[in-house]
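Record filed below.
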Amino acid sequence: MGTLHVGVHYITRVEGHGHIVVDVANGTLQRCDLEIVETPRFFEAMLRGRPYTEASHITSRICGICAVGHATTSLQATEAALGIVPSEQTQLLRKLNFFGEILDSHILHVYMLVAPDFFGVGSVFPLASTHPEVVLRALRMKKLAGDLCAAIGGRHTHPITLTIGGFTHLPRADELEKLGARLEAMRADVDATVELFQSLKLPQFERETEYIALRQPDEYAFIGGMITSTDGFEYPISAYRQVTNETLLPHSTAKHTRHNRESYMVGALARFNVNHDKLHPRAQAAAAALGLKPLCTNPYMNSVAQVVEIAHCVEEALNLIDRLLVRGIQPEEPPPVEVRAGEGVGACEVPRGTLYHHYWIGEDGRITGANCIIPTGQNLANIEADMRALVPTLLDRPQDEVRQALEMLVRAYDPCISCSTHMLEVSFVGATQGNS
């Protein structure tokens, strides 16, 4: 190989716009950057001066797929600042709402964005023609996940019932019973999903890195917990800045993060590596069937970890519905709030990884400052590190294979599905490649 320039343009699965630039000269990697040319969205600035009651509704608009995650994390931060402790019922309903969102996002990613690669089609639309049963299963599962979110949050996207310390509307027992029956029936689709991914051959690529996720002593953490690293570190949520350490790079307008190494990974694979012992037995069985074992260092296996979490969330959602029905849905009102100056941090495991919201509230109840760190930003440096390790192994491959490997690597991280509208555009400029 002589000179190779690979340009991956218009990455639509992050907020804003980005490019992957790979330059190889005389068989040696010269440059390997993930350029993010991001248009600022100013959500943190939008929050300044707004009443604390508006924070969760504003920030849920950051992402259409992770709206529940942003709203819940926002409420956590606000409640921490104001000294509000939600009731047990509120916490159970928030978890149930969260499981619906994890299911919704993971099903969308593994079926609509990842599966087409393995069926040799360009998108889900030709897949619907060649394998209609796969797409119909995905739509059936996704519909149930959306209905679960709507039953708790008032609607599928951008929940309206979540509020400080509680809910403005509660689901009826008969609604939960119907959802429980549908979740039980969904087990067959989950099993079929596991069987599907058993039949797929993912790229073999290993690179050691640090994996970071929330962890709790008695459950597979999605809401709250301790920030935990596979390198042996542990921090309270309030110390998140010791983990994220945001920095700016010349080639990207998006901030990068680093902790103990040059980069770290968040998301389903990180959660599995940190919390695998807390998975539901059916999810552990799915992991075993799929060959997923800790410590897994293949980033392409993030999609497999999402399949495992689908199995986990279905079972835990059923458990939560049973608990709520046994205890009965109580007609609780949100607790009264004594407005005061305060500072609070919230953290949740949204589909793509650990999300942090940090608020400062003044004595008048208005927000004086805010900091939000999303999972995609935390993964950018790790994607670049993966690319630097991956590209040298592909130098003797045809251009189409290089393109496919790079696209699949980006997809594996599931970055910001709310902005995903089309495939990555890859071009090779001035390349000479003998076997292309």
User: Anything to note?
Assistant: The two ends are 10 Å apart (CA to CA). Confidence is low (pLDDT under 50) at residues 11-16, 417-436.
